[in-house]
Each structure stands twice: as structure tokens, then as C-alpha cells.
């Protein structure tokens, strides 16, 4: 026991963070994703939002029910991503000077 009357085991366990990872939950109803270590047929995996992947849903019904609320959050996340990450279009290398001539030669040879 410590000086304030608490046992040392309870004092250290409350100050340590939990090492168990939190299971994802449905963004609408809050159902937890079941472990994939269990029977494969009974495992319920949540499907993430296709656009932002910041929220997951247990069923199509839950996704539809949460659409109005999540639509605003999803759009905001997409805007923030676009502002943070500079989106660049992929550029092609400029054509070689003799590419047209080589193309014609190949065409003439093939025909």
C-alpha cells in the first residue's frame, strides 16, 4: 500500500493506457466489428465509406440512414485533403522529334 492508502497495483493500472486496439464501430448504429479470428461465417466486417474511408457501416441500411449527416463530413474531408495535398495531373513526356516519321515507317511496313 502507498502512503495515501491505495494499493500499488491499482495505482499503476489506472495510469497506463489500454494496449488493446479499439474495434471499429458502425457510424450509424454503433455496432462493433466482430473479430475475424472467430468463425468466418459469423464474422461481421464493417465496410468503409468509399470516398473518405473515415467511417464504416455494418449494413447498407445504416449507410443510407447516415447519408445526410455523413455527406457534409465527407465533402469537408475531401476539401481538406485537396488543400493539404497538392494534386497534380500526370504529365506525359513530350513526343520525340522523329516519332511521327517512325510511326509512318512502321505503318508502311505493316501494310
UniProtKB/TrEMBL annotation:
Top-level lineage group: Eukaryota
Region (Disordered): 1-22, 90-111
Start-end of Low complexity biased regions: 1-19
UniProt GO MF annotations: zinc ion binding
InterPro entries per the UniProt record, alphabetical: Znf_MYND
Pfam family, any one: zf-MYND
Extent of Basic and acidic residues compositional bias: 90-101
Keyword annotations of the record: Metal-binding, Zinc, Zinc-finger
Xref: Gene3D superfamilies: 6.10.140.2220
SUPFAM superfamilies the UniProt entry points to: HIT/MYND zinc finger-like
Residue ranges of every copy of the MYND-type domain listed in the record: 26-74
Protein name: MYND-type domain-containing protein
Organism of derivation: Passalora fulva
Organism taxonomic ancestry: Eukaryota, Fungi, Dikarya, Ascomycota, Pezizomycotina
